[in-house]
UniProtKB/TrEMBL annotation:
Name of the protein this chain belongs to: WD40 repeat-like protein
Biased composition (Low complexity): 190-202
Basic and acidic residues bias (residue ranges): 513-526, 768-781
A GO CC term assigned to this protein in UniProt: nucleus
C-alpha cells in the first residue's frame, strides 16, 4: 500500500422501519470510513531491510467482508485496490440514490458520514427530505409522512476512537510521538420523529478497534528490538490457523526468494552447477535469460561436464573445435553485426558437448534414420569420397568428379577436365584439389564448377594428396629451445606420385591469377620445366626409390610411405629430409601423423603396424596381429585403428601400443572404414557395419546383400557410402539427426578445420611468395596493355571515315579539279 493511500471501511446501507400510521422504510447509506494509515518503517529506508514493504498482497487480504455485533455488514478495502477489482454496487431507494464521485454534477453536494450523523443529531424535521439529508433526490415523493405524535430526544452516539474501552489493553508502552486517536464521527446518527431510540450505524467490536488501533500497534512494534519483534511474530504465527499460514506463505515465498545463480560469484555458481546432469542444465537454462547467459558461457562447467561424461579427449581436439567456432563467429560478425542487447553466444565447449552427446546417442538410438539412395558414376568404381561443408564430393576412375546434395541426392555439379581416373581428393571451404592418372593436379571452384588452375610436374599418376592448413605447432631450435609458431603461413598442397617423388604447392587464394600448365598430350614438353615456371610450385621432394603410396601432413611435418618399404619424415617449409624410417619388410600402404604425441604410424603389406618417434626416428612399437596387408589406418585422439585384407579391424592404444579390441565379423578384405571416439564404420564384400569402438561390439548393419562397398565417410549427423549393386554404383546417405538437431556441429574426421582466416601479413617472405606477387603484377600489366590496345583500336575505328563521309570527300575533290 502506498504511503499516500489509506485503508477504509465501506458500510452497507442501514434500514430502519418506523411504524406510526403508515409504515415508512428509510435506507441510509454512509460514506466509506477512512482508517488511519500505517506509519512508514524507521529509517534508514533500505528496501533490502524491508522486502515486504511493497510486496503485493493477495486479493483475499485487500478486499474482505466484516460483520459487526449488531448485524451490520462492511467491507474492508485496502487503499491500493483498483476500482476495476471492486464490484460496483447500486445503492438507492424510492426517490433517491447513492451518488458516486465520478457521477456528481457541478451543483451536487455530497455529505460524508460524519457530517450526516451530525446533521441528523441536530435537525428534527418532519418531512422526508430532512430524513434524506446528504442524499441526492431523484424525484418527488408521492405521499408525505404525517407529523409524529411526540418528539423524541436524540441520543448521542458514543465516541469511537482508537482508545475505546472495547479495545484490548496493549501490553506495550506507548511510544513517544504516537499519533492521537482519530474520531470517526462526532455526534449521534440521524433520528426520525417519534422513532425508537436511535441506533448507531455500527457497534464497535474487536475487528474495528483492531483496525483503528493498528497504527499504534505498528508504531509499538517498530520500536521493539529485533529479537522481541521476532518473538512477537512467532507467537502470533503459533496461534494462527493453517489457512492463515498458507496465505502468509503465498506472500512471503516470492518476496523472500533469492536468485542465487545471479548473486553468487561465478566460481561458486560454476561449482554448484557442476553437480547437475546435462538434462537438468538444459532445463535450467530455460528459466530466464540471466540463467541462460550464465550457463551457456561457463567454460569450466562444460569442460568438467565433458570430462565427467568421458567425452573429453585430451584437449587438443577440444581447442581446435573452439578455435573453429570463434573463427566462424568473427566471419559472421563482419557480415551481420549482432544486436547490442542480444544474449551472449554459448561457449564452444557447450556446442562441442551437444555435438558429442548427439553423436554418442543418435547414431545408436535412432532406429530409422532418414535414408536416401541414388545412382552415381554409372558402373565405375568410386575412388575417392569426401564430405565437406554440406557437400558430398565423389571421384571415379571414369575421369569425373561429382558434387551432390546430402539432403536430396541431387547432383549439383559435375567437374570435367581430367583425362584419367581421379585417385586423390582434398577440399578446403569452396576449393577442391584433385590428382589424377593424367599426372596433373587441378584446382576447382566448388561454387561455379570451374577449373581455375592446372599444375603439372609429376611424371606419373598423382596417387595421394593433402591440404596443409596453418596451425600452431611446437618448433625446436638449436639449444633445445621450443617455440609456438603458426605453420605454414598460408595453406599448402602436398602431392605424392608414382614417379617416386612428392611436390609442395601453394594453395591459390580466391582472386589470385589462374595458372594452367603444359598440355599433357604434348609429349615434347618437360613437366619438370613447367613446374619450375609455375609460381605456385614450392618444393620437389626426392628420396623415395619407388612409388609414393600414402602421405599425411600437419604444420611443418610431412610423413610419406612408399613401395620402397620406407617411411620418410620431411620439413615441408625447407624441404629437408629429416628421417628415413626403416623397418617394414614389404610395401607401405598407409600412414597417419600423430603430431600431439610426436609420432607417426605406418601400415604395410608385411601385416604389421609400426609406431615411429618423430624426435629421434626410432620405432617405438611394432603392432602385430594382422595376417595380411594393412592397407588402411585411422587415428583419433584416443584410438588407432587398422584395417587389413584379413577381414579384421584392430583397435590400438596409440600411447602404449596395446591391442584393445579385434573387430571380426566381415568375411572379406576391408575396403574402407572411418572412425571417431564412439564408433567405427567399415565396409567389405556384402555389407557395411557399425561398431562400438569402446567395447568392440557390432551396433548395426547399415548395408547388407550388396556386391561391395567402395568408400564410406561420416561427419556429424551425416553418413555417406559408395557401393556396387548389380553392376551399378550407388551412393547411400543417412541422416541420424532429428528436426531438433539443426545446430548439430560435426567434427571433421582428421580434426583439421578450415574456418580460420589467413591474412597476407602472415605470409612468409620467400621465393614462392615473390613469384606469386610477380605473377599478379604481370597479369595486371597484361590487362592494362589489353585495355590500352582496345582504346587504340577504338580511336582508329573513329578515324576511319564512314561511307557518306567518303562520298563527300570525293565530291569536294572533284569540284576542286573543275
Amino acid at each position: 500500500m502506498s504511503a499516500n493511500q489509506r485503508p477504509y471501511l465501506v458500510l452497507q446501507p442501514s434500514v430502519s422501519t418506523t411504524k406510526v400510521i403508515t409504515t415508512t422504510t428509510t435506507t441510509t447509506t454512509y460514506a466509506p470510513i477512512p482508517l488511519p494509515s500505517l506509519p512508514p518503517p524507521l529509517s534508514p529506508k533500505d528496501p533490502k531491510l524491508y522486502p515486504l514493504l511493497d510486496a503485493p498482497l493477495p486479493q483475499s487480504l485487500r478486499h474482505f467482508p466484516l460483520v459487526f455485533p449488531n448485524g451490520t455488514h462492511a467491507t474492508f478495502r485496502d487503499g491500493d485496490v483498483p476500482e476495476e477489482e471492486v464490484e460496483s454496487e447500486y445503492v438507492g431507494g424510492s426517490g433517491w440514490k447513492m451518488v458516486r464521485k465520478e457521477d456528481q454534477g457541478e451543483n451536487t453536494t455530497v455529505v460524508g458520514l460524519s457530517e450526516a450523523v451530525e446533521r441528523f443529531g441536530k435537525k428534527r424535521a418532519l418531512n422526508t427530505e430532512s430524513l434524506m439529508e446528504g442524499v441526492e433526490v431523484t424525484g418527488g415523493l408521492s405521499s408525505s409522512v404525517p407529523p409524529p405524535r411526540k418528539k423524541a430526544r436524540g441520543t448521542a452516539l458514543p465516541h469511537i476512537s482508537t482508545s475505546n474501552g472495547a479495545a484490548p489493553p496493549s501490553p506495550l508502552p506507548s511510544p513517544h510521538g504516537s499519533p492521537p486517536p482519530e474520531t470517526i464521527w462526532p455526534s449521534a446518527p440521524p433520528s426520525g420523529a417519534s422513532s425508537p431510540s436511535p441506533q448507531a450505524p455500527l457497534q464497535p467490536d474487536l475487528a474495528l478497534t483492531t483496525l483503528l488501533a493498528l497504527p499504534n500497534l505498528v508504531s509499538h512494534f517498530a520500536n521493539l528490538p529485533p529479537q522481541l519483534q521476532s518473538h512477537f511474530l512467532l507467537t502470533l504465527l503459533r496461534h494462527s490457523s493453517l489457512p492463515v499460514l498458507r496465505t502468509l506463505y503465498s506472500v512471503l515465498t516470492p518476496t523472500l526468494a533469492r536468485d542465487f545463480i545471479t548473486l553468487l560469484p561465478p566460481e561458486l555458481v560454476s561449482h554448484v552447477l557442476s553437480y547437475l546432469p546435462f538434462s537438468t542444465l538444459a532445463r535450467a537454462s530455460c528459466v530466464s535469460k540471466a540463467w541462460r547467459a550464465i550457463i551457456d558461457s561457463d567454460a569450466v562447467l562444460w569442460r568438467d561436464l565433458l570430462k565427467s561424461t568421458k567425452i573429453w579427449f585430451g584437449g587438443d581436439s577440444e581447442d581446435a573445435f573452439a578455435h573453429s567456432i570463434y573463427s566462424r563467429r568473427r566471419r559472421e560478425l563482419m557480415l551481420n553485426p549482432r544486436p547490442t542487447k542480444s544474449l551472449p553466444l554459448p561457449h564452444p565447449y557447450k556446442i562441442l558437448f551437444k555435438s558429442r552427446h548427439l553423436t554418442r546417442t543418435r547414431w545408436v538410438n535412432n532406429p530409422e534414420p532418414k535414408h536416401v539412395s541414388f545412382p552415381a558414376h554409372g558402373s565405375s568404381v568410386v575412388t575417392c569420397l569426401i564430405f565437406s561443408h554440406g557437400r558430398i564430393i565423389s571421384a571415379s576412375d571414369d575421369h569425373s568428379i561429382k558434387v551432390y546434395s546430402p539432403a536430396t541426392g541431387e547432383e549439383l555439379l559435375q567437374l570435367k577436365g581430367h583425362e584419367g581416373g581421379v585417385w586423390a581428393l582434398a577440399a578446403s571451404k569452396d576449393t577442391l584439389v584433385s590428382g589424377s592418372t593424367d599426372r596433373t593436379v587441378r584446382i576447382w571452384d566448388l561454387n561455379t564448377g570451374k577449373c581455375t588452375h592446372i599444375f603439372g610436374g609429376h611424371t606419373s599418376t598423382v596417387r595421394c594428396l593433402a591440404i596443409v592448413k596453418p596451425e600452431w605447432v611446437d618448433v625446436e631450435y638449436e639449444g633445445g629451445i621450443v617455440k609456438k609458431e603458426k605453420w605454414p603461413k598460408r595453406p599448402l598442397i602436398v602431392t605424392g606420385s608414382r614417379d617416386h617423388s612428392l611436390r609442395v604447392w601453394t594453395l591459390p587464394r580466391e582472386g589470385e591469377p589462374e595458372y594452367r600448365s603444359y598440355n599433357p598430350d604434348d609429349h615434347e614438353s618437360d613437366p619438370a620445366e613447367d613446374a619450375e615456371e609455375n609460381p605456385y610450385h614450392r618444393l620437389h621432394l626426392e628420396g623415395h626409390e619407388h612409388a609414393v603410396r600414402a602421405l599425411a601432413a600437419r604444420g611443418r611435418t610431412l610423413v610419406s610411405g612408399s613401395y620402397d618399404c620406407t617411411v620418410r619424415i620431411w620439413d615441408i617449409i625447407t624441404g629437408k629430409d629429416k628421417w628415413v624410417l626403416v623397418g617394414h619388410t614389404q610395401k607401405v600402404y598407409s600412414v597417419v601423423l600423430d603430431l600431439p604425441r610426436q609420432q607417426a604410424c605406418s601400415g604395410s603389406m608385411d601385416g604389421t603396424v609400426r609406431v615411429w618417434n618423430l624426435q629421434n626416428g626410432e620405432c617405438q612399437h611394432t603392432l602385430s596381429g594382422h595376417t595380411s596387408l594393412v592397407g588402411l589406418l585411422g587415428l583419433s585422439p584416443s584410438h588407432l585403428v587398422s584395417a587389413a585384407a584379413d577381414s579384421t579391424l584392430r583397435i590400438w592404444d596409440p600411447d602404449s601400443g596395446e591391442l584393445k579390441h579385434t573387430l571380426a565379423a566381415h568375411t572379406g578384405a576391408i575396403t574402407c572404414f572411418q572412425h571417431d571416439e564412439f564408433k567405427v564404420l567399415s565396409g567389405s564384400d556384402g555389407n557395411l557395419k557399425m561398431w562400438n569402438i569402446r567395447d568392440g561390439t557390432v551396433v548395426r548393419d547399415l548395408l547388407t546383400g550388396i556386391t561391395g562397398v567402395w568408400q564410406v565417410v561420416f561427419e556429424g549427423r551425416w553418413c555417406v557410402a559408395a557401393s556396387n549393386r548389380q553392376d551399378t554404383t550407388v551412393l547411400d546417405v543417412w541422416d541420424f539427426g532429428t528436426d531438433e538437431d539443426e545446430d548439430w556441429v560435426g567434427e571433421p574426421p582428421n580434426g583439421i578445420y578450415d574456418d580460420e582466416e589467413f591474412s597476407d601479413e602472415e605470409e612468409e617472405d620467400d621465393e614462392g611468395a615473390y613469384k606469386i606477387k610477380r605473377l599478379i603484377e604481370v597479369k595486371r600489366d597484361e590487362e592494362d596493355e589489353e585495355q590500352e590496345q582496345a582504346d587504340v583500336d577504338a580511336m582508329d575505328q573513329d578515324l576511319v571515315p564512314s561511307e557518306s563521309e567518303s562520298l563527300e570527300i570525293i565530291e569536294m575533290g572533284g569540284s576542286q579539279d573543275d
